[in-house]
């Protein structure tokens, strides 16, 4: 759907639309999606980082034990 299609659909319901209004609507929708994604990332990222760090630590301990046994 391009700009003309959007204008045609909105004209059918009696609204005139400018490019500025379409951009504003697009930005509002983008922000509405980005905000929850950033919040979820802020919650999940530290947990994933901690899990990866723990795994690397356990691998290092395992490797050290194997090296000591040889």
TrEMBL record:
Membrane-traversing stretches: 30-49
Keywords: Membrane, Transmembrane, Transmembrane helix
Protein name, as recorded: Transmembrane protein
